[in-house]
Structures are given as C-alpha cells and as structure tokens.
C-alpha cells in the first residue's frame, strides 16, 4: 500500500493530475468496445479499481486468508490484523475521532438499511422509533435512503415526511426548519444526489437536525471518492458509503458514526462473532463494532477498500476534486450548447456528474448509440424516481467522471450526443 504515484505538478492554483500515467493502473480502460476505445463515464454507478488495490487484495488472499477473531493460529491472527488495520485506515480517511466507530457492511444500501431497521427491530418497548415519531428524508435521495424509511414508518407507526426540492432540484435550509418538530427522531439526507449531482447544504442541515434532537444520517456514497465528508466536523450520527464508488471492490461498504448512536441499533445479523455468550434460551451481544458485524466478513473487500482510501489520499483529494469538477464543467458547456438537450442542476458545480434529457428522444436510445461509439453512460431513473417525478422530466442520461477520465473523452461524449440528436429526432 506504500506504492509511489507519479508526481503531481502545479498548474496555476491547482495540482493537475497526471491522468495518462494514472490510467496505466486501469487495464480495463485500455480496451475497445464495439471497435473503438472505451470511454468509461459511468463512475457514479461503479468506479474501476487500480492495480494497487487489486494487489493489496491478492496479497491478503495469497498469504493471510483465514477467518478472523476465531483462531489462535498465525494466519487467523494476521487476517484479524489486516481487517482491523483496514478499519483504522478508513476511520482516518473519513475524519473519525475517538467518539466514532466504523462497521463493515456490503455497501451503502446495507448500511442505510442497518440504520433504518436497527432503529425499530428491538421492538416497541426498546426501539428508538415509535408511533407518533417523525422521520424526515428528502426527495433527492437514492431509493436506499427512502424505501427503508418507508418501511420503518410502516413498522412503527412513525410519520415519514419528505423534504421537497425547488423546481431546480435544490434543498433549502428553511424548508427543513419548517418540517422539524419536537417529535422528529431521524433526519436522513444525501451528501450528493446521484441523479442530478445536487449538493445540498448538508452540514447546516445536519446541525439543524441535531439541535432539534434528531438522529442524523448522511448518505455519502457519491462524495466519498473526491469530496469526503469529515465526521469530526459534522453533526452526523451515521454516515454510509461504499467501496465500489471509491476505486475499491464491490460488495464492501461501511456504516460509520458516533458510538452512542451505533449502540442504539439492534443487530440485524445474529450469529457468529457478534455475541459474548449464548445459552439455549438467550444470548448476550458483543460490544461495537462486533455486535453489528455478525458472520464471516468480507476481509479481502475491507483490505481493498482501505487500499483504495490510501490510494486516493496519496494522489490527493483536492486535485481529484478539481479534476472531476473541470470535466463536469466541460460536459455541461458542451451539452448545453446542443439544441434539444436540457441539463439537470446546471448550478451543481461541485458535482462529478452531469444528467440530461433530450427533447423527443428516449435516454435508452441515446445510451445505446453512445455504447456503439464506445462511450459508457447510465440511463434511466438512477434509483431516484421520486426526484425525476418531482422535476417532471422522466428518465435521464447520466455521465459521471473519475480521476482517470480525460477532456478528450468528454469531447467524444458531447459529439456523440450531438450526433444522436441528429439521427434520433
């Protein structure tokens, strides 16, 4: 994990990424699709993994593979050390302090479900959520930060209230203030909307919710690769994110947050490694983080996710952030100049993605034509159908950018969309 990267160099006020040198670590990006060079612009769904991350996982599998916490033999002890070292690395990456803990999950979706279900699964006498309580989420959310709260409301008799954006897809602090009541127990929002790129003022919103006495939940999946929220600076009880959004492996993620908040969650996976004692009639749960990590964990995934965090840190969050913002600005300018194209949330300059609709053309047709030209984008509702319904736009086409994307790839995107509008309208 200590592998050196090509030196970054100064370019005006920002450090410019040596993209051509970094791309060497991503062999999949060098392939051809339909006879032309691949332009992979679907990073909001899944980023590719650099060789450095794959090697870290291979080293674990080849040398340390064993079950953790359960053996006195050397490999088990080494695997346990690898797993706990990965936890420490990721806690440092997100700015966790001594009051925080990090629990490994399969990804953001499981993390958010662990919070929503964990707040009612203890039963009506012990659960945090009860009849008459209020849960607030927003219409910007991925379904994973909405549907679990719908279920929590049904199971407990709590009231689910959805904070609506304005006509441009923005959330406003005063609108949240109007929804907060003494009965508000949970406020769950996104750090960056995966459908539009909108970045709500989540810092102030979390602070407002905490002041109202609510538990606060942040979906950081779309921010974790370039604009990482720092727990030490936030009024955040729970933060969820995934490895595959940050140049790491699929099937691994984390739920991080305040220990006193995590301790409120009833464990959803009951069995091995999350108990202190068991009889035929009852069991006592272990302390954090073990009590929320029942079963054999994805140790290689945790190692890979930590290696990805180390990789990003080596390169530098600021230059990565500046790079993806510049690509987004370039795409916005080019797409906005095409007749019949409407870009969602053009004001979202801190985003790493751009979504658009095309007059009289279905996004699936655009996506298919782009794929014929080797350009990978995402089409549809992006697991955020209520937001699309609110904006009245239907499904969209989304291009999303990573540290390995280039200005030339954005030029290809714009040219291909312009061509699609000519032949499909």
From TrEMBL:
<dbReference type="Pfam" id="PF00266">
    <property type="entry name" value="Aminotran_5"/>
</dbReference>
<keyword id="KW-0808">Transferase</keyword>
<comment type="function">
    <text>Catalyzes the removal of elemental sulfur and selenium atoms from L-cysteine, L-cystine, L-selenocysteine, and L-selenocystine to produce L-alanine.</text>
</comment>
<keyword id="KW-0663">Pyridoxal phosphate</keyword>
<comment type="similarity">
    <text>Belongs to the class-V pyridoxal-phosphate-dependent aminotransferase family. Csd subfamily.</text>
</comment>
<feature type="domain" description="Aminotransferase class V">
    <location>
        <begin position="40"/>
        <end position="413"/>
    </location>
</feature>
<dbReference type="InterPro" id="IPR015422">
    <property type="entry name" value="PyrdxlP-dep_Trfase_small"/>
</dbReference>
<dbReference type="InterPro" id="IPR015424">
    <property type="entry name" value="PyrdxlP-dep_Trfase"/>
</dbReference>
<keyword id="KW-0032">Aminotransferase</keyword>
<dbReference type="GO" id="GO:0008483">
    <property type="term" value="F:transaminase activity"/>
</dbReference>
<dbReference type="InterPro" id="IPR015421">
    <property type="entry name" value="PyrdxlP-dep_Trfase_major"/>
</dbReference>
<dbReference type="InterPro" id="IPR010970">
    <property type="entry name" value="Cys_dSase_SufS"/>
</dbReference>
<dbReference type="InterPro" id="IPR020578">
    <property type="entry name" value="Aminotrans_V_PyrdxlP_BS"/>
</dbReference>
<protein>
    <recommendedName>
        <fullName>Cysteine desulfurase</fullName>
        <ecNumber>2.8.1.7</ecNumber>
    </recommendedName>
</protein>
<dbReference type="InterPro" id="IPR000192">
    <property type="entry name" value="Aminotrans_V_dom"/>
</dbReference>
<dbReference type="InterPro" id="IPR016454">
    <property type="entry name" value="Cysteine_dSase"/>
</dbReference>
């Amino acid at each position: 994990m200590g592998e050196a990267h090509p030196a970054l160099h100064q370019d005006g006020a920002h450090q410019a990424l040596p993209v051509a040198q970094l791309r060497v670590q991503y062999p999949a990006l060098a392939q051809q699709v339909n006879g032309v060079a691949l332009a992979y612009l679907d990073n909001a769904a899944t980023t590719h993994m650099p060789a450095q991350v794959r090697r870290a996982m291979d080293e674990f599998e080849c040398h340390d593979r064993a079950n953790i916490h359960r053996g006195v033999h050397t490999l088990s002890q080494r695997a346990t050390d690898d797993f706990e070292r990965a936890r420490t690395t990721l806690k440092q990456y997100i700015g966790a302090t001594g009051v925080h803990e990090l629990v490994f999950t399969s990804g953001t979706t499981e993390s958010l479900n662990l919070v929503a279900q964990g707040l009612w699964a203890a039963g009506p006498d012990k659960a945090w959520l009860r009849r008459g309580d209020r849960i607030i989420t927003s219409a910007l959310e991925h379904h994973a930060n909405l549907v679990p709260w719908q279920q929590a409301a049904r199971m407990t008799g709590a009231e689910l209230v959805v904070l609506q954006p304005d006509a441009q897809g923005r959330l406003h602090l005063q609108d949240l203030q109007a929804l907060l009541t003494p009965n508000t127990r949970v406020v769950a929002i996104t750090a960056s909307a995966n459908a539009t790129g909108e970045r709500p003022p989540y810092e102030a919103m979390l602070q407002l919710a905490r002041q109202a006495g609510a538990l606060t939940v942040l979906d950081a999946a779309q921010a974790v690769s370039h604009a990482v929220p720092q727990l030490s600076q936030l009024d955040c009880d729970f933060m969820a994110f995934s490895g595959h959004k940050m140049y790491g492996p699929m099937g691994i993620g984390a739920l991080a947050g305040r220990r006193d908040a995590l301790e409120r969650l009833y464990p959803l996976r009951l069995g091995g490694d999350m108990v202190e004692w068991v009889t035929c009639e009852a069991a006592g749960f272990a302390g954090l983080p073990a009590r929320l990590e029942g079963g054999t964990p994805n140790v290689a995934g945790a190692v890979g996710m930590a290696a990805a965090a180390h990789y990003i840190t080596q390169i530098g969050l600021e230059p990565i952030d500046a790079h993806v913002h510049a690509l987004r600005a370039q795409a916005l300018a080019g797409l906005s100049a095409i007749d019949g194209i409407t870009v969602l949330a053009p004001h979202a300059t801190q985003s790493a993605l751009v979504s658009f609709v095309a007059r009289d053309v279905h996004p699936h047709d655009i996506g298919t034509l782009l794929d014929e030209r080797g350009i990978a984008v995402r089409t549809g509702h992006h697991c955020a159908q209520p937001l699309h319904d609110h904006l009245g736009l239907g499904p969209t086409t989304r291009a999303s950018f990573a540290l390995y994307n280039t200005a030339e790839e954005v030029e290809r995107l714009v040219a291909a969309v312009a061509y699609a509008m000519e032949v499909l309208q």
